[in-house]
Structures are given as structure tokens and as C-alpha cells.
Amino acid sequence: MGIQAASFxxxxxxxxxxxxxxxxxxV
Length: 27
What we know:
Elements: H1 2-26
């Protein structure tokens, strides 16, 4: 469970950063 949770959190952070990146591009 630890490894799965860690990979999930890293994917979630990556999604958040890409969303912020797209937001900066569109503005």
C-alpha cells in the first residue's frame, strides 16, 4: 500500500503542476 500511495501522490502532484502550467499558458 505504501508504494501505491506514494505513486498516487506523485501522479496527483504532477497533475496539479500540469494544470497550473496550462492555466499560466491560457492566461
